[in-house]
Design a protein that fits this description.
3 helices; mainly alpha; Tscrpt_reg_HTH_GntR; 2 strands; Bact_HTH_transcr_reg; DNA-binding; two-stranded antiparallel ribbon; transcription; GntR family transcriptional regulator
Length: 76
């Protein structure tokens, strides 16, 4: 995925992750990739990855268990 670096990047990363969720790439209850992995895949900072994941959490697509990571909600 080519990111447009002239505009904020985290929404672009969140959009791609959203597309993957919609396509069923991540199954309900499955552990979602961590922010370190997302940052490496998209070649962005970890804080950018954190913002993208936080947006998906706010939308109710993910939930987080402290110390275990983020998981895909059943009703995505």
């Amino acid at each position: 995925m080519d990111l447009d670096r002239s505009v904020p990047v985290w929404p672009q990363v969140a959009d791609e992750l959203r597309r993957r969720l919609d396509a069923g790439r991540y199954k309900p209850g499955e552990r979602f990739p961590g922010t370190v992995d997302i940052a490496a895949e998209f070649d962005v900072s970890q804080s950018t990855a954190q913002k993208a994941v936080a947006a998906l959490r706010r939308e109710g697509r993910l939930y987080t268990i402290l110390g275990q990571g983020s998981f895909v909600k059943d009703d995505v």
